[in-house]
Amino acid sequence: MLTIALSKGKLIESALDLFRRAGYTIAGLSAESRRLIFISPENDMTFLIVRPSDVPTYVEYGGADAGIVGKDVLMEQESDVYEPLDLGFGACRIAVAALQGEGAGARLSSKVRIATKYPRISERYFNARGVPVEIIKLYGSIELAPVVGLADRIVDLVETGSTLKAHDLVEVEVIAKSTARFIVNRASLRLKQEPLMTLIRRLRAVVPSQQPPAGSSRPMAQRTHKKKMARS
Ligand code: PRP
């Protein structure tokens, strides 16, 4: 039996569609349901519906054998999991945004305040550029922060750009692009190799123009590295 953690929210419909296209019948599993666990005996699988930011934790610690989560979350958490498949859907970018008219370098003499739900990505990005920043961690509705003067800029996901536009914000820089990824627990890959490889093969077959994730020459060699930077 394989346990698969799916991100609730924006990715779940595409993730369920992916499993269906790969030939898995998952009757009763729907994005609308309040159920958090679905047992699918016909596929010998259990699906868990968890918050996106919790998917890498479930997979890393073996609460799930595999999961589907955005690259943005993996970059932020640097979890120790295998990342064999870029699933292509959920495309968006992690960007720096500021209020329209707030030119670059408005506060060069002091720390720039950045509101974000990606504190590590933000810190790495600005540190690498030698820009002193003060990170303000928020859990959602990030676009409000510059509007009320809580922060100078934000680092957030941009998909269509409509949330930025609605708050008079403009993209200043793109930090990284993100798509949904299939991730696998390292021990499960050894202990449940056969069912996991079958699942990966069936998913890969229905992912349009599957490429190895950037930076990987061998699909199964990809691993999201952990703790490259000191955690505060
Ligand atoms: C995400 C992100 C932006 C929005 C971007 O928020 O944080 O707010 O989507 O999408 P857009 O470019 O298509 O407008 P989400 O809906 O996940 O909610 P949150 O603000 O509570 O994180």
CATH level 3 topology of the largest domain? D-Maltodextrin-Binding Protein, domain 2
Give the CA-CA distance, first to last residue: 38 Å
Approximately how much helix is present in the residues? 25-40%
- Can you list the strand order of the major beta sheet? 2-3-1-4-11-5-12
Q: Mean pLDDT, rounded to whole units?
A: 89
Short description:
The protein is α/β, with parallel strands linked by helices and 232 residues long.
Please describe what this structure looks like.
By secondary structure, the protein is of the alpha/beta class. It has 2 domains: 2-90 and 179-224, 3-Layer(aba) Sandwich (D-Maltodextrin-Binding Protein, domain 2), CATH 3.40.190.10; 92-177, D-Maltodextrin-Binding Protein, domain 2. The protein is 27% helix and 29% strand. It is built from 8 helices and 12 strands. A 7-stranded mixed β-sheet has the order 2-3-1-4-11-5-12. Strands 8-7-9-6-10 form a 5-stranded mixed β-sheet. The protein is elongated, with a radius of gyration of 19 Å. The two termini are 38 Å apart. 1-O-pyrophosphono-5-O-phosphono-alpha-D-ribofuranose binds next to strand 9 and helix 6.
Describe the secondary-structure layout.
Blueprint: E1 2-7, H1 12-21, E2 37-40, E3 45-50, H2 55-60, E4 66-70, H3 71-77, E5 81-86, E6 92-99, E7 112-116, H4 119-128, E8 133-137, H5 144-147, E9 153-158, H6 162-166, E10 169-178, E11 180-184, H7 186-191, H8 193-206, E12 223-224
Parallel strand pairs: 1-3, 1-4, 7-8, 7-9
Antiparallel strand pairs: 2-3, 4-11, 5-11, 5-12, 6-9, 6-10
The structure holds 1-O-pyrophosphono-5-O-phosphono-alpha-D-ribofuranose.
1-O-pyrophosphono-5-O-phosphono-alpha-D-ribofuranose binds next to strand 9 and helix 6.
